Amino acid sequence: MTSFLLASFVGLVLGAQDGADAEPWQRITPQHVAFIRSQMRFLADDLNEGRAPGTRGGLQAARYLSAQLEGLGVEPFGDAGSYLQRVPLIGVTTDNAKSSLTIEVSGAAHPIPLLDDCVVGDETQTERVELDAPLVFVGYGITSPEMNWDDYKGVDVKGKILLMLVNDPPSDDPSFFGGKGLTYAGRWTYKYEEAARQGAIGAILIHRDAMATYGWQVVRNSWARERPYVDARTKEEPRLRLVSWVRDGTIAPLLKDAGFDLDELIARAATREFAPVVLPMRAKATVESTMRSIDTYNVVGVLKGDERSDEYVVYTAHYDHLGNNGATEKDGIYNGAVDNASGCATLLQVIKRFTDERATTKSALPRSLIFLFPTAEESGLRGSEYFAHHPPVPAKQLVANINIDGVAVDGVPAEFALLGVERSTLREPAEAAAQMMGVRLVPDASPELGLMYRSDHFSLAKVGIPAISMKNGTKFFDRPDDFALGAQQDYTKNRYHQPSDEYDPKWDLKGAYFTAEFAYRIGQFVALDPTVPEYRDGDEFDLER
């Protein structure tokens, strides 16, 4: 975007606002946040039963969002002229009462308590599997020619069960597995995919809080319920018969009995010289599963552009969460207020800004806008993945993605870390919007979390669409310097993927409104810019759409 266009546009917009002498965040009033508050309160209500895919509450949330799009004047862009795009999934629930995992050392069997110390599942969509196979420790379970790294070293692991670590090999060098940042090779999803490609029949991930960057309750809560998968009949690919996690404090004594020290194995795995270790141990597992076809939907609307209406900027915010854990003696509903009722409410505010602007000023919107509320994000980005491979228009016409997944509900961010912004030419419109909003763009303060690979923008990036995800930084305009870090740590420990992620009427939600305004400005600049965003040469997502 030319500096002349930027200067003209900034002057036009700021000059038209009331209280132009005040900073943008200081103009936010309770009336501004009322719309976001009402949306968030409803989406996070117990009535929606945690918005799990394939449940009444999930479908209710999808239909509610459809009604909101219609009320805001957005056209349907789903199946058969509707706002809904069906996502064909199979829901798989492990019957933990009939399933088991046992580690055998020197002929002694050691049953691992399910849920308390391990979780198990089966990706083949089979009602019952039984396994008994040798254990092989494969370090981080990564094969990467680009990094001259191979944890398999030519060892035949066909028919074996693999024991492996989460995360990437440790490094401070940004050119080596992202340095302190997590790459996709460090994600647990990659570990299972690569194990299956190598011919293994099962894989057990060792959970250590510091390496996974979250506590055991996150694993337990995510695996103690139905997990949606793409129907195996529609997508041929290798699949594991056993997918499992085990706590480090549980596996370490068993490794010691077999003559190995877990910390020493971890240290060995951090070097290129590491080779797989065939352990004198066996894993025996029984996994019983129940399956059902899931009726779940992405919610999709479109606001048509004027000049380049066949080019689309895609906004995303997933609406699903984890449902209900079945508890009767206490609240077992995973309301997902921050994750991601806040993002959905914020995106609805973005839509309202676009439609209000067009209605009142008749301003031009050269490119079209797609507003996508994906399903099954919490289950492996299933909804956005399906959309990326089955878009309503050819993928080459999708020029950019702006994702919103959890926003500041108290306080107004003075910094934003736009995940993925450094990878593409989206940085220029993002910087223009940041200048307008008076905020700084900063690097991700927690790259070890690998958030680039953990929300719906990743699905679109994987097919070559330049994508960013909104994340606030560590400085707020109206809070002490240590506020953001403390709030994030408290949320991760006490509310993330827990029933306690509930709507709180005391939240001021100014940060949500401010984030909506920033996201709106970024999309506005992308829609106005005549150039098509592109990934930087050599980036892992620099692909033909």
Indicate the radius of gyration in whole angstroms. Answer: 24 Å
Oligomer: single chain
CATH C-level category of the largest domain? Alpha Beta
Helix count from the secondary structure assignment:
14
Query: What is the makeup of the main sheet?
Result: 15 strands, mixed
The helix-and-strand class reads: alpha/beta
Q: Low-confidence spans: pLDDT under 50, at least 5 residues?
A: 1-18
Helical content (DSSP H or I, runs of 4+): 25-40%
Number of domains: 2
Instruction: Find the count of extended strands (DSSP E, 2+ residues).
Output: 21
What is the general shape? globular
CATH topology of the largest domain: Aminopeptidase
Q: Mean pLDDT, as a whole number?
A: 92
By CATH's scheme, which homologous superfamily of the largest domain applies?
Zn peptidases
CATH architecture of the largest domain: 3-Layer(aba) Sandwich
* % residues in beta strands: 15-25%
- Report, as a whole number of angstroms, the end-to-end distance: 23 Å
Can you give a write-up of this model?
It contains 14 helices and 21 strands. It is an alpha/beta fold and 545 residues long. The protein has two domains: 3-73 and 304-528, Zn peptidases (Aminopeptidase); 92-291, Glucose Oxidase, domain 1. The strands form four sheets. It has a 15-stranded mixed sheet that branches. The chain has a two-stranded antiparallel sheet with strand order 7-8. Strands 15-16 form a two-stranded antiparallel sheet. Helix 11 (427-437) crosses helix 14. The longest helix has 25 residues, at 337-361. It is globular. The chain starts with a helix and ends in a 17-residue tail after the last helix.
